[in-house]
Amino acid sequence: MATLPLTATARTSTSAAALPLIGRIAIAAIFVLSGVSKLAAPAATIGYIQSVGLPLPQVGFAIALIVELLGGVALILGYRTRLVAAVLAVFSIATALAFHNALGDQNQFIHFFKNIAIAGGLLNVIALGGGAWSLDARR
């Protein structure tokens, strides 16, 4: 069976539908990778949480692991996209304030504003939703 070539409008529509998915994957990648690295070295992560003086480092570790892994995967899939993006945005700001607040240190300064930039991208996800290629679009 022969297929007709895509029209310019159909190509544009497909490209536009793909962009939110690509954006969700790009933003979620940092959360999933960070969660996997925490899972691979729990003692180091708990030690780092203790080093900044936060209480209950084991609980903090568990929360971070759940938020990063489950939140990252949910964001990629576009499942409850706006809610997940809001949780990840709050998490990004909280971690910036708790772990990257030594703004006199250039490395911490960069990490602080990286987290703020991620939160900004997530605000766009909250505003625009998951897009056509998301589980939310199937509901």
Structure description:
The protein is an all-alpha fold and 139 residues long. It has one domain (20-138). Helices cover 76% and strands 0% of the residues. The protein has 5 helices and no strands. Helix 2 (42-51) packs across helix 3 (57-77) and helix 3 (57-77) runs antiparallel to helix 4. The protein is elongated and about 55 Å long. It starts with 7 loop residues before the first helix and ends in an 11-residue tail after the last helix. The model has no long low-confidence stretch (mean pLDDT 93).
Brief account:
76% of the residues lie in helices and 0% in strands. It is built from five helices and no strands. The two termini are 32 Å apart.
Radius of gyration: 18 Å
Quote the average pLDDT: 93
Shape: elongated
Strand residues, percent: under 5%
Helix count, DSSP H or I runs of 4 or more residues: 5
Domains, number? 1
* Termini gap: 32 Å
The number of E-state strands comes to: 0
Mind summarizing the main beta sheet? none
| Low-pLDDT segments | none
Helix content: over 70%
SSE sequence, one letter per element: HHHHH
Backbone structural class: mainly alpha
Fold topology:
Layout: H1 8-40, H2 42-51, H3 57-77, H4 81-99, H5 106-128
Helix pairs in contact: 1-3, 2-3, 3-4, 4-5
Family: Belongs to the DoxX family.
Subcellular location: Cell membrane
Organism: Sphingomonas echinoides
